[in-house]
Amino acid sequence: MYNTVFFIIIAFFVLTFLFEQFLSWINQKNVKTSLPKELEGIYNAEEYKKQQAYFKTNEKFDLVKNVISFVVYLFILCFGLFGWLDGQIESVIAMPILITLTFFGILFVLSSIFDLPFDYYSTFTIEEKFGFNKSTKKIFWTDFIKSILMNIVLMEILLFLIAEAYQLTGNYFWLIAWGIMTAFSVFLNMFYSELIVPLFNKQTPLEDGSLKQKINDFCEKAGFVLKNVYVIDGSKRSTKANAYFSGLGSKKRVVLYDTLINDLTEDEIVAVLAHEIGHYKKKHTLQNLIFSIANTGVILFLMSLFLESEDLAIAMGAEHTSFHINMLAFMLLYTPISMLLNILFNVNSRKNEYQADAFAASFGLGEELISALKKLSVKSLSNLQPASCYVFVYYSHPTLLQRIKAIKKNE
User: Fold this and answer.
1) pLDDT, tens only, 185-243
2) Annotation marks residue 276 as catalytic
3) Is 357 one of the catalytic residues?
4) pLDDT (tens digit per residue) in 370-379
5) CA–CA distance from 373 to each of 158, 216, 227, 244, 272 (Å)?
6) Is the C or the N end of the chain the one with fewer CB within 10 Å?
């Protein structure tokens, strides 16, 4: 199994891990005890000390989790355990598609179980310690079970359709698979809030009142038809606040967390909503969907070129090629390209955030948006001064300081 492809996979895996840890180290070294004048007053001395403690605690936790994950996966790769699992499944199942579904199903369940103690510790120790956690153990375990069942069902349906396409069409399967994934992406974008969210949270239409009236007045001023504004009970899990836009066409809706409504003034909420509407008006939602679809097409095409490679299968410890083993090996080889594409996506996403902020500011809501962003940063104990290289690689949003400066320029 120790062929050239194996050593390339190991090299990519190790270098990716070292690169990520190097960026985290730089980000930790960038921590400052003082804030620039634009950010003064956001935290008082006690809050800023708490924010620094929260940041350092999470960094230590992430380091432990990442090192353990790295060692475990390196062990699996070096001892060919993916190939061993494939052989064990083949010894009891003969149907290729069923082998594929079983293989990825087992890996998903094992991965979820592996992540479970880390998620549990993060929720009930770290988040609890810093006053964020509102989740009960019953909610945690219910979410875990629901999430596993939902993801297995969706994953296995998609895998079945894609594997079936491969069995029927060979290397040209990627075109059919691309069509399947595109239909799934569009469907999920349109119905995520109606089908997925209710499994975990309760959504209720925003009640009539001054807030709803202000939202309707803004939408009318912005020339935006919005019939669906919902409030989600995010407070049953966390004190952190959020808002998001989902859906396409008649299915579009804005979802406000109840914590957001509790923490912000009505004008600040309208400013946040204006930002979300700005994403839609600037076609960022559609843009991201198109990027995702195009990226999926490229991945599927490239993967189709490697599904018959015996070297890939051997590198994973398997005795022969198979759809699932070669697919997994390809995704490991694709990791550096995936990281580069994620960086490009984040660069574009930060540009879109600036545009959405500018859209809100164009309606005279710049100060309200700045005030809302400051409150949300304090509420979530956000790191206000991350390292620029860390932001470049990982951040889908500009930093608070960058957003404040850009909003003030657009006022």
Assistant:
1) 888 888 888 888 888 989 888 888 899 899 888 988 988 877 778 899 888 888 888 88
2) yes
3) yes
4) 999 988 888 8
5) 39, 22, 25, 14, 8
6) C
